[in-house]
Queue: 4 jobs
Job 1
Amino acid sequence: MKILMYSIYAFDKPFIENATHGKLEIEYTNQALNEDTAKLAEGFEGISLFTPDNASDSVLEKLYFYGVRYIALRSVGYDYVDLKKARALGIKVANVPTYSPYSVAEHAVTLLMALNRKIILGQKLMQMGDYRLDHLVGFDLHGKTVGIIGTGKIGAAFAKIMHGFGCQILACDPQENEELIQQTNLSYTTLEDVCKNSDVISVHCPLNPETKYMFNKSNFMLMKKGVIFINTARGTIVNTEDLIDALKMGNIGAAGLDVYEKEKTIFFGNHINKKLEDHLYTILRSFPNVLITGHQGFLTKEALERIAQTTIVNFNAWAYNGLSKNELK
Ligand code: NAI
């Protein structure tokens, strides 16, 4: 099977090369899939995509025209693919359902701890020779209430870490995880309750029509003043304009973001010496109490190995009998 991998970077290519076996002929491009780059897939039966790509309705039509029948995503999330359209065209799509939930959960904790204990500011001050502690006061996590939105694989890993810190955990998820209740003494409640009662809120649900802008003015207003808000899930779950207003008003004490709603034009690229056109992002980045990372939650060796292995397994299964167990329905 001839495969083109879009959005391949120096950080993931060696893992894919190491994992490759079977009768796969793989070519790579660092370009993201969009209306203009769909043509690169001409003559390839399979393509592999990652979060910077955009497999919208019209892009999928082009891909089908060029001969693409299989798409293996190198991610858990599949919000950047129009699955309904792919199904209608008969293009099979598979994801990597699990790789390392710890990678993202631990990154969420990293953002939380760096914000709470003012690690970035402390480092900057020290480098300038200012060893005063006056601006660096944080709070104990022990005994605080942590709200978790989505207790699937990543949310559960995050809950266990927070339980280890001695936090009370509130969660909201339409699918309650009984085992997690036993393990962490977590209580399921409504989104409203989580917002009202948590000192820290961390988002771990998928982006879909129901969760788009789930965090907006109305629930930012409900939150405890000074709450630390963490989002490592998807940017569009949060209304960024409303988040900026909540930060300005001090409702939100600090925000740790690994994702941003318009990240596709910024993240994963080199913008040194370029003016960023995204005004909203420029404002967000300017807050001293906002810590942004460029969608690197998944970026551990263990996760990259699993992503590469599962992607190759998906293609080999399709090449062998046209069926992969990770196909998205
Ligand atoms: P998962 O499918 O195991 O868990 C998602 C959970 O969210 C499920 O329990 C589901 O019932 C729950 N959920 C769905 N709708 C909800 C709603 N309206 N309110 C509350 N909960 C809801 O997925 P997993 O592996 O835990 O990943 C979660 C998300 O993390 C992915 O969808 C992806 O967007 C994001 N992610 C981010 C990465 C990064 O590098 N920053 C890497 C991997 C995933």
Note: The chain is about 35% helix and 15% strand.
Job 2
Amino acid sequence: MTDKLIIFDTTLRDGEQSPGASMTKDEKVRIARQLERLKVDVIEAGFAASSNGDFEAISAIAQVIKDSTVCSLARANEKDIGRAAEALKAANSKRIHTFIATSALHMEKKLRMTPDEVYEQAIKAIRFARSHTNDVEFSPEDGYRSDVDFLCRVLEAVIKEGATTINVPDTVGYAVPELYGEFIRTLRERIPNSDKAIWSVHCHNDLGMGVANSLAGVKIGGARQVECTINGLGERAGNTSLEEVVMAIKTRKDYFNLAVGIDTSQIVPASKMVSQITGFVVQPNKAVVGANAFAHASGIHQDGVLKARDTYEIMRAEDVGWSANKIVLGKLSGRNAFKQRLQELGIELESEAELNDAFARFKALADQKAEIFDEDITAIVSNTAQAEASDYYRFVSMAQKSETGERPQAKVVFKVGQEESVSQAEGNGPVDATLNAIESKAKSGAELLLYSVNAITTGTESQGEVTVRLSKGGRIVNGVGTDPDIVAASAKAYLAALNKLHDPSQQKLNAQMAP
Ligand code: KIV
Ligand code: ZN
């Protein structure tokens, strides 16, 4: 019999901890729905005690997700666990994931607790979590750098107390595959009740080995859950990437002999959605989801692929959800055709008002651009959700003038609360002038960390997708804007980032902070 590998997605929790990747409640619900379509087993929807915004997002996800288990992270204390349980109340299937650091370094320097105190707190946390649900996961943070004897003592005790999943994080991405795999195997062999829990791996990618370490944890260590994120999103160098793990398990079934429940045709749509919402662009040569992942550029390869695909292809692009850019709609398409295409793309809008708004944007875009692709539709929906969720600053219109030898000028009309404001400025280029014009009114004082432009489809008539990353008072936010005019896309992206800075529900605790 083939064992099943549980796919635990933490894009909305660990992925979101990446500076600038914070998402609104509506954005998180959209991603959660896509993760459900992808058929992930567990969705870690957030860290309920970290902020009201996270609490609300987890509650909303718990209400709409029916097939995947919904999970909240909680530090090992009653307040956090109580908050997680409350946020998960409506879930069909719920999990509480509680953690405390167990490495000498973290216990002494971060927690300022003795090993015995950590041991007692871990047991109490599991007992309290079990009073809320039967599905409880425990993570010894910085587990891989922890003393193995102490770790065995803690893990044996938490399993006895009722932890059903034991996750062993390589919190700082220090592991190498063989050693990490053996570490998991040692724990499972030495802990007498280890067979009472499912073992899980959680690897960060600081040395570029997150996926390799996770797979070694599975193959050598016998883990049966992998924690991962779409596109490998996450702090620093990111987390283990879901798409790479899933396709490795599927493509090398001869070696792993494991089953995964993932609908792989939903991988690329999930990747595009996460990238579009967070503004974290996927590198072109990224395995599975990069734009070049299936492009055979060299003549020899093309010749081989044309004669027999498997000469150079180990996976099929269509199996992971790549489809050629298809013209799906145009100027004459009606509301029903638009609605049907949304359904085919698996996009569910929350209300008729949202559908009307998205349709109006579609019509406006079709006036500017003859051919509308699936990517355009996804961007329209992103913009609709974004504009609804964060409406303090709203783009109205803009004009800009640039001429060789002249300093570019821009005029931007946008709403600040209920008031319409018109501001003008000059700059080094049209984008600089536009952002200066907005800033002259908004006066955010934020520092611009990143500005990037991407074409969302091919050809010069494509919409531009602009990402702006701002930093202020220790917070980092991303804003994304799309428009066939990249200067207008830049204005929208800047306003979206200002909206995130303006939204207090986006302020949250980081999971790695001391309790
Ligand atoms: O990397 C880590 O240690 C974590 C835990 C909170 C599970 O994300
Ligand atoms: Zn982590």
Note: The mean pLDDT is 92.
Job 3
Amino acid sequence: MTARLVAPHGGTLVDLMASEKRVAELRSAAREMPSHSLTPRQQSDLELLMNGGFSPLRGFMGRADRERVCREMRLTDGTFWPLPVALDVPEAASLAPGASLALRDAEGVLLAVLSVSEAWRPDLEREAEQIHGSYAKHPEIVRLLKRTQPWSVAGAIEGIEPPRHYDFVELRATPAELRRRFAALGWRRIAALHLEREMHRAEQELALHAGRDLEASLLLHFAVGLSKAEDVGHYARIRCLQHAEKTFPRHTAVLALVALASRAAGARERLLQAIVRQNHGCSHFILTDAPIEAGVAAEDAAVVDRARGELGIEIARMRPMIYVSDTDGFMPEDEIPKGAATHVLTEADLAERLSWGKPLPGWFTSPEIARELSRNFPPRARQGFTVFFTGLPSSGKSTLANVLLVKLLEIGGRPVTLLDGDVVRKHLSSELGFSREHRDLNIRRIGFVASEITKNGGIALCAPIAPYDAMRKEVRSMIEAGGGFLLVHVATPVPVCEQRDRKGLYAKARAGIIKEFTGVSDPYEPPADAGLVIDTSERSPEECVQEIVLHLEKEGYIGAAAPVEEHA
Ligand code: PPS
């Protein structure tokens, strides 16, 4: 069953939810179907397909649509559409045309059934060039491509139930719900602002100006397509937005969340964002040149301009607002009198201030938002961190880690956990050997435990050999998501390690009794990204550890944290 809703803005809304009877049929048939567990990105796309946020799409794109969209931003029926909405899967053996595929969330809950129309291997690199042009080789695009599975499976969707969200339920609204709400409020002109982070005074002023210029009410629409349920930043940002919403005159602004995942696709992405807002019942889409979204360069602006006539929503380009201290107010850059003193606080400045516990200036943001941010993004001196030692057997990793443990406990303030190579192998990885596969698994486990400790404000000291660079990098990114990470390369040369040979293992390895022994018969890839490189050959452990302590102090991870509750 497909219901159609017509609203003053946005045109016809597709609704792909199946009828109650059909849901029952599909649920029982799904037991026999192959299943696909959706990634967060795919789940967000599915949510927008099912609730009509991606109208007029009725499923994941087929080959002809996808290729034409990449080439010329058009579906095969001529409808303007800027980016593929596709489902990538690792293999397609069971996905012949006519087959059904059960689409499930990460827990296995059945969300929808896809009737397969085709499955093929798209030319991802060519598509990237068509979509991203000169940005196709940008590291973020390359990373996205690497994560994309080789097969694309297309077909119509029948929705069983929308993805479940337990956070900020009152802020989540489908296109149909928002359209109804706007109608009930008597709002006919609604300007949407696409948000990916909190709004400070400059962004609030910009939205206020846009609303006045356009004589429109505002939809503050926060994209949560890739937010993780366990990310404290997600909650903090939304609470900040709730504070920001209150700064607008009553009955002029509504805050809502939308499951829209970012695509790193510049102008085309902005156009997709506009279409999604059109479907949510908005008449205008606010586009700012900078700094809210850094990705929109001049060439992108031209793409947006060319597409204007194709959209059912008007694009309102707004200039960013800058704080002018002489007048204690905000102005668009090109209206600021020559010589006037201006202030800008970039995202990097903000992160820097928070990490050192410095107060946020009153012109930049309100005390409520400043307090929210400093509580949730504590200064480094109150964040968790991991010191990850890597080096050959008998290089001194465990000795340094043990001395550092004592020093950090003396300093106090945070719990410290030591994950030593040998100890981990006894308790966490007792079944593992020393093949590359097993070593990687061992390091991934250590990284996981350390990331949990770090995320929760503790200190983890890890001291495995960790011979492979790729795995160390994986661990670093896991840990940095929730706190600090210091890689210490204990670069004691092999002859010195071998001379120490504390467990007699080098001798056994030379005699061929132990196989795959790091430094003798197994590789060690020295890191190029170590924060510190320490050779323990001619220095005492105390001296080496002092260097680490001083480094941590310099980086702000140990030391007195500045008071956080006062803001100018
Ligand atoms: S790894 O590669 O990071 O998973 O290794 P790790 O968990 O740190 O374990 C290293 C300790 O195990 C002992 N051992 C070996 N090391 C390397 N290669 C082989 N084949 C091997 N067999 C046993 C060795 O004592 C290591 O201890 P450390 O403390 O590094 O000297």
Note: The two ends are 57 Å apart (CA to CA).
Job 4
Amino acid sequence: MKGKAMPNNVIQHWSDGKPFAGTTTDTAPVTNPATGAVTGQVALASVADGQHVIDSAAAAFPAWRDTSLAKRTQILFAFRELLNTRKPELAKIITAEHGKVLSDALGEISRGQEVVEFACGMPHLLKGGMTENASTKVDVSAIRQPLGPIAIIAPFNFPAMVPMWFFPIAIAAGNSVVLKPSEKDPSAALWMAELWAEAGLPAGVFNVLQGDKTAVDELLTNPKIKAISFVGSTPVAQYVYATGTSHGKRVQALGGAKNHMVVLPDADLDLAADAAVNAGFGSAGERCMAISAVVAVGGVGDELVSKIADRARTIKTGDGTRDADMGPLVTKVHRDKVASYVDAGERDGATLVLDGRVVDADGGADGFWLGPTLLDNVATDMSVYTDEIFGPVLSVVRVGTYDEALRLINSNQYGNGTAIFTNDGGAARRFQNEVEVGMIGINVPIPVPMAYYSFGGWKNSLFGDMHAHGTEGVQFFTRGKVVTTRWLDPSHGGLELGFPQNN
Ligand code: NAD
């Protein structure tokens, strides 16, 4: 909606500790995926709006950097307590705009909360090093300092957890933040901004900029922004990394995925089938760690496919606020795109075991429904295998040996997550050593690391050197300084133009 009067239900930006309407009337519709209804309009920032919000973060930074660690962590603890008490409110907001079922929305908040809890330990994490008498009467210390205003650009699929991978650590370390949520589910970010204000965070330390490419481009090029944490599809991650770094910023850009689950002949096939269904269809497959390709090794295919199909048939697809296992897809456009991959798989000769295009969903007639879909005998040149689909479509690829399975994964452009199901410790150990993927599960289908480890893939699943949260997150949001100190001592005066040497 361009150039029309701003409607009342517009979802705004947040800066200087309060809502900011922005200067344009450009908006995009936000829908409830379970009904298809337009429930609001989100503001789309102009360049001037972007500058206004970035200025708010820049103005707040110096005082926040100088706020004691004790005070900063008190505010973090307060945010954690409020979040823990009030997370059902946030879960409802997520379900209403994303579509995932309420229990899943609560799950993502809890995983984000773990990062808040990790960041409450920032005083310990920021401890530097000190060497006394490195040279005669010379001491050396290493400290880490915050970067300045940083930007987080988030995808639609985890409107609370993904921003929380970054902002608790960035804020605890003394940075100020501009969060640019996905325009598909923008309200969770505003709810979290209000919670920060309630927790006592000074105005301007946490800001929200709503918008599309215009907002992103302002964040990537504005010299006041010092670092970018991006999560989204690979082509946009590549663009963000190239543009941000060419403007002198530190960038970590997490991209797309195609996660394989290898099932060896000795595996417990019931456990493997449960895992494939949970990891393939949870959140309607809209997870970057979802399993989308099951690699059945050495003759387990028939039994495994039959067990997966039996379980998948029991999944209730419906409105996430009701008694459903799996919700709708995020938008009609995305639903139709995922369905078109199923069309293509069928055309290309895959065996359609379960067809989610025909689904009796417990929800609105205009909801963006697609049921669990299972394709067997998928070949590696089919688009259903080569592309990231990001929907409830599980492909089974049959191979003869472990080596073939490994080659398949290692030749894939993505390297986010993978899993192996086996009772053979030697095979599992070999897999974790040989597979070129950032996060590995052994009899665990979605191996999302705990907050105190770092999250990130390899190859086209991550651009940059540092992964999200854990100690790499602390490193990303701080930079090192080494201070060499000598207090005045008359015996050490005099001119010496040679390169400093230790003695
Ligand atoms: P997306 O790339 O479409 O959007 C991500 C963000 O980039 C949004 O804020 C969006 O507004 C912005 N954006 C979109 N197009 C842009 C453009 N041309 N220029 C500048 N900015 C642009 O991703 P999505 O559809 O919101 O999310 C799904 C994708 O995210 C999937 O590919 C999924 O694998 C990936 N993802 C990856 C991880 C991970 O940890 N690797 C985690 C979650 C999601």
Note: Residues 69-98 form the longest helix (30 residues).
